[in-house]
Amino acid sequence: MKNDKKNSYKAIIIANGGEAFSGVLNKIEDKKEKKRKIMLEHYLSERAMFWECDDKVVITPYLINNSLINKNAELFNFNNLKNLAPSTINISLSKAIINDRSLWNAIVKIIKDNPGINVSSYAVTEDFMLLIRGFKKRNLKFTSNEKPEQESEWTVSYLDSKVGFRLEMNKIQSSLKESIVPEGFICRDKKEAMNIAKWFYKKKRSCVVKVNYGESGWGTVILKIEDFGSIEVLEKGLEREFNSDLIWDKTLIVVEEFIKPNKNIGGGSPSTEVYVDDYGPKLTYSCGQLLVNQKEFIGVAMGNKYFNDDINSKFKNIGLAVGKRYWELGYRGFFDIDFVISSQGKPYAIETNNRRTGGTHVFDIARNLLGRQWGKKFYLISRDSFKYGNKNLSSKIIMDKMSDIMYPIKNNKKGIVVTIIDECLPVFGFVIIANDAKEANQIYRKLFNVWHK
Predict the structure, then answer these.
(1) Of residues 216 and 52, more confidently modeled
(2) What is the DSSP letter of 214?
(3) How far is CA 169 from the centre of its chain?
(4) What are phi and psi of 227, to 5 degrees?
(5) pLDDT computed for residue 293 by the predictor
(6) 280 and 222 both lie in a single domain
(7) 177 lies in a domain?
(8) How many Å apart are CA 89 and CA 58, to the nearest integer?
(9) Given CA atoms 412, 414, 418, 419 in this order, what sign does their dihedral have?
């Protein structure tokens, strides 16, 4: 790739998605399934090429497809984007960097050549902090703006947990003098969770059972009262779930009321991202999450007229209140708040994800490609894992087949930006840019027809 600025960089980005979920990934006993889930997280790391602006070094578990990175570098005018990867990796990218002497030395040289460069990550993990401490031992001059204050590093895992989140939300809603989380309980074990789930059933209320640390719907069970003819049927069903997955063992569990989502608002699962720096919190974007079975995350939608002013105002008030509390605790960096909107239009916060999230790259694509006022003029949809067939195709063939609908369509600011190409499976990720929801769906139908006529 052309590099007019030689070795001048402003940022190093560690796309450590896999290690962010190492706790739950390591609980998988089936080796084949474990490898599949690890590879899925690694493949999603390609989204990191869109984070922030130009003049960056992006370190991913595997090198991003060269055709894809060159295509997007040209599209976004990234003249100074460098991609590096370790020679071998298991789950942790940070550990792989530490253990790869050649890569380690290359990064050290980049930092030395660019004093003050910012080092950030998908998530601030224990392994990432080990990497940061390694750089500091070398007396390298760099910043890490998305890292919590030193005495507050514990906030990442605490606030990312279902229990820590609930404890802090109870404090926040007390100061706001209104409920912002569903009624719920923290359970010591599966037995206690079972008893509380049965309590909800007796009260004729549906509930959600959530493991303290889950990921993308894994470790979440929705128990709708209409799905169970008796309390005995519910008990057997939940017991089956508990016994089928080790994720429920030796962990705290949250059981809370299930709020039936209003799917007309954000698809039933809106989210607001907040960025916290030393000066306080600020909102970056709000979006609707695209979910399978109300649990499994596959993408987002955001932009022009996606939410009305009333909902946006509610998201802003809650987002800034949560961000202020997290800032007071010493948390720094990105997090998002996942909401459910009730049939009465009231938003309930159900968790925070303390890291960059599945909409971060969509937001960065929008502001870098469409300008700061993108939200008033454009509408975006993303998918991270679109299956295009039964066998792998080269990146060139994939993009050539969609040439008529690739951004910019006839030099207009609409079309498809390919964000990910899986080298192992016939899957790619994309973002659709359009003027409104109707046009975005029209482009999606054309994309679908290219692959599944």
Answers:
(1) 52
(2) E
(3) 21
(4) -85, -5
(5) 59
(6) no
(7) no
(8) 16
(9) positive
Same domain, 228 and 332: no
273 is written with which tokens?
């991202």
Beta-strand runs (E) in 72-183: 81-84, 117-121, 142-143
Q: β-pairing, 280-292 with 296-303?
A: antiparallel
Residues near 216 by beta carbon (within 8 Å), at least 6 away in sequence:
295, 296, 297
Whose tokens are 């870098």? That residue is: 368
Looking at residue 292, its pLDDT comes to 63
User: What residues pair up with 300 in beta bridges, in sequence order?
Assistant: 289
Does residue 156 lie within any of the structural domains?
Answer: no
Alpha carbons 90 and 317: distance in angstroms, whole number: 41
Bridge partners for 187 per DSSP: 253
Q: Which residues contact 164 (CB under 8 A, 6 or more apart)?
A: 157, 158
Q: Is the per-residue pLDDT at 301 higher than 90?
A: yes
Reference 208, options 271, 259, 270; nearest CA is 259
Place of tokens 């699962």: 269
* Residue 40 falls inside a structural domain: yes
Give the mean pLDDT of 422-431: 93
Would you state the structure tokens that stand for residue 167, as one six-digit string? 């404890």
Query: Phi, psi (5° rounding) for residue 396?
Result: -65, -45
Q: How many residues does the chain have?
A: 453
- 3-class secondary-structure state, position 158: helix
pTM across the whole model: 0.90
pLDDT in tens, 249-278: 999 999 999 999 998 888 888 999 999 999
How do beta strands 296-303 and 56-59 pair?
A: unpaired
What is the per-residue pLDDT across 360-378, written as a single tens digit (0 to 9) for each? Answer: 999 999 999 999 999 999 9
